[in-house]
């Protein structure tokens, strides 16, 4: 297990190196010179040249990359070229918002999706199944921006129950924090819940049709035990994969949801920074996101073996 | 005040048929009339204390007056950094940290700025004096990457004369200087803060102002708190001002309605009519010098830029009134030239419009010998409002025999293409300067930084230079009267419309001031005593 983990971590480091090189090259291939944007509305060539030199943009790209890599190795993320603020501070203030949003919406998706999926599978072809499927179709079809805007109009503008925007750190006020995150998590979670429901349903139907379930029933186990212990546990592998992949996507930022609820998360940060050609911020944010993806995937792989003992991790002891 | 214009009346007439079908189910609101009621502030008795949350339409850039380039950044400076001069409600220039108007020597080469000495202190307690002004001006002129350096190009040397006067020596007479000192170039930074942070002043900016910088969380909020050092601190009511960037117009407005924001910059043009009659909201409205124009690439040998007849035809095909109606619900103003109606140099000649003449446009296309429809590639900003603008232009140009293809392009890429001369026509905006020179020189002078069209005419260059150097207003007026029609004839830039500033706030707030420079002034703002009494 330890050897396996070390091997995976080495792979992860290589992946991150490749990602950073690709992002670095891609950003520099983009049209639009950051120095020109920084020089303002009336840029004179001398100022632009000065700014280019200040930012090191006048050096060859491979040299820029090595310099950047050297700074990264010392955990020096540099400064935002647009705001002049340290990138590490910016990322650290974003991380809790993004993580909380990701985890809460994942929770919404998992609870709603798994419950609806199990119910639909058990009552296959009956009204419960139809309702769950219709709900899933709706969840997948309704775009987040529309759902979000309607939520804001109804719950914030008309009823005034929830705030329209803003992030309150849980250390300041836990209820304020949850009030602010409730709508975004629900909006972001609905689409995901639909995916989880479909997966749970199909994999449950498959499992419930298998021989050992028939045996379990024949032994006289209670229906709840059959479904939840013997059925659900064995369906969880596919569901976990989906949740893991989605968590990766959620960490990279839910751009639309963040914009509607004005949450300062990673998605917004990256989009804004690409538009303003704030290269140090984009590079650092992509790297952190990629690291998140890699770690989540690793964690999912480890979880497989916990949920399903049939899966043996290579190099582990059986 | 700005001269009365016949255009809004005409636009109102045009708007009536558009609105009639709605009359049966909704109260008839004439957005043009709403737009015309200029209101810069609402007065009410104010309670002391409280917080004002301002929604901005973008994330401000570095809070360093030497480096700042955005209007949204100036919104934040308006709360914490006073300038040598300020713009008043009538677009006039008034002393702020200066004690009076600048005194210009006979040859126009020496400018003396008298300074306030009545106990003015920076927000860190450092006294304000001539040495501090010299240090800031020198930083603006000399720091690498300074975006003020071009504005202060004419300044050769700055020195203090005693504690209360600075003397600027110029390399040439330069009329726009005072208006430039009414913007970021006139902001004075605390010498102690410059000593402590150097080029990283933006991390903890300290100026003279009603509020001082407290905290900035990038893309989330900028917090200012009341400054005890401010010379007029007893006229400041609020404890804190929080600026939050919310780029989307409808989300910003929803947050104002829900009470998360107290003030919003920039009400979207389609929301103006609704907000103007909405209970609980107050709409402030000012004319601006911000314009959008279509730059035509004169250097493109295969494009319409190469043939003056085609450029003129394209310009004549556009009906600016209808553009304003269709794309902006009639709440902006048609624009035909670089000098805004609020300028002191806006006389009849300067404001004259070549107008809309599709018949003549078709003749010109035929005369040019080009095969109709003439293809035109039009680069436009890729947001919904500008795409609608592009489509309107496309439809109008089609009637004159042009086949316009729209190329929505993200801002940074469009600037790169424009600078490389890699475009045929390009719709872009200019935030506008109070002095006419700031709206002309960079766009029309040979080799100017914003001269994307490649316009080059030695006579026009000379006129631009003479007008900027003319310190006598009558002489300047004559020069602009000659210059502007020549610019219009060239059709290197086809002016389309001028924006108006629309700011909204909740009615529990008063004293927020909006002037024609578009800045939201919060120094005298506060919670109304009535709202505070309700516990609001």
Provide an overview of this structure:
The complex is a heterodimer of chains A (318) and B (536). Chain A has 318 residues and is mostly helical. In chain A, helix 6 packs across helix 8 and helix 7 packs across helix 8. In chain A, 40% of the residues are buried. With 536 residues, chain B is an alpha+beta fold. Chain B folds into three domains: 222 residues, Dipeptide-binding Protein, Domain 3 (Dipeptide-binding Protein, domain 3), CATH 3.10.105.10; 123 residues, D-Maltodextrin-Binding Protein, domain 2 (3-Layer(aba) Sandwich), CATH 3.40.190.10; 116 residues, Dipeptide-binding Protein, domain 1 (Alpha-Beta Complex). In chain B, strands 2, 9, 10, 11, 12, 13, 14, 15, 16, 17 and 18 form an eleven-stranded mixed β-sheet that branches. In chain B, helix 10 runs antiparallel to helix 13 and helix 16 packs antiparallel against helix 17. The radius of gyration of chain B is 24 Å and the shape is globular. The interface between A and B is large, with 50 and 49 residues.
């Amino acid at each position: 297990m330890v050897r396996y983990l070390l091997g995976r971590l080495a792979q992860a480091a290589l992946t991150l190196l490749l990602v950073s090189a690709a992002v670095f090259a891609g950003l520099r291939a983009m049209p639009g010179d950051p120095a020109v944007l920084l020089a303002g509305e009336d840029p004179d060539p001398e100022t632009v040249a000065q700014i280019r030199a200040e930012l090191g943009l006048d050096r060859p790209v491979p040299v820029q990359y090595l310099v950047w890599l050297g700074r990264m190795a010392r955990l020096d993320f540099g400064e935002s070229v647009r705001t002049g603020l340290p990138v590490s501070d910016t990322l650290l203030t974003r991380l809790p918002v993004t993580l909380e949003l990701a985890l809460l919406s994942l929770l919404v998706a998992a609870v709603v999706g798994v419950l609806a999926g199990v119910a639909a599978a058990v009552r296959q072809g009956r009204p419960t199944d139809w309702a769950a499927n219709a709900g899933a179709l709706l969840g997948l079809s309704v775009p987040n921006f529309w759902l979000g805007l309607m939520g804001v109009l109804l719950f914030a503008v008309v009823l005034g129950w929830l705030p329209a925007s803003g992030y309150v750190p849980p250390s300041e006020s836990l209820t304020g924090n949850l009030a602010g995150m409730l709508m975004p998590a629900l909006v972001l979670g609905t689409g995901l819940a639909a995916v989880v429901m479909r997966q749970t349903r199909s994999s449950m139907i498959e499992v419930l049709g298998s021989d050992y379930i028939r045996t379990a029933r024949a032994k006289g186990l209670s229906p709840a035990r059959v479904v939840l212990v013997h059925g659900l546990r064995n369906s969880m592998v596919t569901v976990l994969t989906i949740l893991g992949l989605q968590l990766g996507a959620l960490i990279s930022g839910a751009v639309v949801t963040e914009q509607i609820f004005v949450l300062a998360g990673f998605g917004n940060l990256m989009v804004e920074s690409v538009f303003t050609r704030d290269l140090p911020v984009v590079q650092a944010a992509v790297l952190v996101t990629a690291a998140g993806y890699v770690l989540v995937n690793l964690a999912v792989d480890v979880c497989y073996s916990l949920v399903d003992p049939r899966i043996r991790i290579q190099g582990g002891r059986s | 005040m700005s001269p009365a214009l016949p255009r809004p009346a005409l636009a109102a007439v045009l708007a009536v048929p558009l609105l009639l079908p709605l009359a049966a189910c909704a109260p008839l609101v004439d957005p043009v009339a709403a737009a015309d009621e200029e209101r810069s502030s609402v007065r009410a008795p104010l309670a002391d204390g409280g917080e004002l949350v301002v929604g901005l339409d973008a994330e401000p850039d570095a809070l360093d007056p030497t480096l700042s380039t955005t209007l949204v950044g100036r919104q934040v400076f308006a709360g914490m950094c006073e300038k040598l001069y300020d713009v008043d409600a009538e677009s006039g220039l008034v002393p702020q940290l200066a004690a009076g108007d600048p005194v210009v020597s006979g040859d126009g080469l020496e400018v003396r700025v008298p300074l306030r000495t009545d106990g003015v202190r920076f927000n860190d307690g450092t006294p304000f004096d001539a040495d501090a002004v010299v240090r800031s001006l020198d930083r603006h002129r000399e720091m690498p990457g300074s975006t003020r350096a071009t504005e202060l190009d004419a300044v050769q040397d700055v020195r203090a004369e005693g504690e209360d006067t600075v003397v600027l020596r110029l390399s040439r007479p330069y009329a726009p200087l005072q208006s430039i000192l009414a913007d970021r170039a006139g902001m004075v930074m605390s010498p102690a803060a410059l000593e402590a942070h150097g080029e990283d002043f933006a991390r903890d900016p300290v100026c003279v102002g009603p509020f001082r910088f407290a905290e900035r969380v990038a893309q989330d909020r900028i917090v200012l708190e009341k400054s005890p050092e401010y010379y007029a601190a007893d006229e400041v009511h609020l404890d804190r001002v929080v600026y939050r960037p919310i780029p989307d117009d409808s989300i910003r407005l929803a947050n104002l309605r829900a009470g998360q924001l107290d003030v919003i910059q920039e009400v979207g043009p389609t929301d103006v009519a609704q907000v103007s009659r909405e209970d609980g909201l107050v709409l402030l409205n000012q004319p601006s010098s911000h314009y959008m124009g279509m730059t035509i690439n004169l250097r493109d040998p295969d494009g319409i830029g190469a043939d003056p007849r085609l450029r003129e035809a394209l310009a004549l095909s556009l009906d600016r009134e209808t553009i304003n109606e269709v794309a902006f619900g009639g709440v902006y103003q048609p624009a035909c030239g670089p000098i805004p109606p609020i300028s002191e140099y806006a006389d009849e000649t300067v404001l004259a419009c070549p107008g809309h003449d599709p018949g003549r446009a078709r003749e010109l296309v035929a005369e040019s010998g080009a095969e109709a429809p003439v293809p035109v590639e039009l680069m436009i900003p890729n947001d919904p409002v500008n795409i609608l603008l592009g489509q309107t232009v496309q439809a109008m140009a089609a009637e004159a025999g042009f086949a316009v293809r729209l190329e929505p392009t993200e801002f940074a890429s469009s600037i790169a293409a424009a600078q490389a001369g890699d475009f045929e026509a390009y719709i872009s905006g200019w935030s506008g300067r109070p002095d006419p020179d700031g709206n002309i020189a960079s766009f029309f002078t040979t080799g100017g930084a914003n001269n994307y069209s490649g316009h080059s005419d030695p006579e026009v260059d000379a006129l631009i230079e003479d007008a900027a150097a003319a310190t006598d207003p009558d002489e300047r007026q004559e020069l602009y009267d000659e210059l502007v029609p020549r610019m219009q004839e060239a059709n290197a830039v086809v002016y389309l419309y001028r924006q108006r500033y629309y700011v909204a706030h909740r009615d529990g707030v008063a004293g927020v001031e909006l002037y024609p420079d578009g800045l939201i002034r919060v120094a005298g703002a506060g919670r109304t005593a009535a709202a505070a009494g309700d516990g609001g």
